[in-house]
Amino acid sequence: MSSGNEGDPFLQVQADVLSTLDTSRPLFTSYLRIRSIASSPSSPELTQARDELESTLGDLTSDLHDLIDSVQAVEIDPFRYGLDIDEVGRRRRLVEEVGGEIEDMREELAKTIAGVQQKSYAASVNPLPLPSSFDAESPDGDGYAVFEQQRQVEIMHEQDEALDGVFKTVGNLRQQADVMGRELEEQGEMLDEVDTLADRMGGKLQTGMKRLGTIIKKNEGRSCPIHAHRRPAADVVVDTMSSCCIAILIFILILLLILVLVL
Asked: Which residue has the higher pLDDT, 36 or 201?
């Protein structure tokens, strides 16, 4: 439907008709249920239900007549009102369907009143049930329709509960996935910190190894056998201390390397 038909009176009346029709359907179902258990046509519950249904059907019929007049007017020259053939056909089908449903309700309403009167008369004359009363309890009667409706409601309720369970399970899985994601992020940050610390310790080890290599080269030059007889005793003591320091540095470097590997 085009946007130019937003102000069409037909659409406004159509909305009212569909809303009233939605209201009349549960009233009609309730009326059938009350009729199936009523013992007298003058039952207060039956009378109230019938009055409410008749009032609603009266309003619905009045609005339907407006729709029928509108459809008959546009069928003559639909292009004059900015409508195409398909839209006119849709409106005609809508009027026919609503009218048919209203007629079915009215027929069932009249049939129901006669059925209740017959049931009351049979109960006053003969306490035994008439054969026709068994037909009312057949699978084609209103009692079976009410039972089927109740069964459908129960099935829908069970399906809703099953869907709620599925939604809860999906929600739990999502929460678990969120927790696992946060834990993985924390572990990733910890690994980054370990990598940074390992890089720092590796740099310090390389610096220490360079210094150690420099010290070893100096000591090798001092401990050369060609000049050993020329070195004084003080130099020998210094060389001994240097060797001890080198050994200590090597031990410290090895210890740091072990700590880095363990952590």
From this structure: 36
What dihedral do alpha carbons 107, 45, 52, 61 form, nearest 10°?
Answer: 0
Helix (H, G, I), strand (E, B) or coil at 1: coil
- Are 31 and 106 in contact by the 8 Å Cβ rule? The answer is no
Location of structure tokens 């990598």:
195
- pTM given for the model: 0.40
Structure tokens at 54: 């008749």
**Cα–Cα distance for residue pair 128/172, rounded to 1 Å:** 61
Q: What single-letter DSSP state applies at residue 129?
A: P
Residue-level pLDDT at 7 = 62
Q: Are 143 and 137 in contact (CB under 8 A)?
A: yes
Q: Which residues contact 235 (CB under 8 A, 6 or more apart)?
A: 222
Least confident of 105-109, 134-138, 165-169, 204-208: 134-138
Residue 57 pLDDT more than 70?
yes
- Alpha-carbon span 115 to 30, nearest angstrom: 16
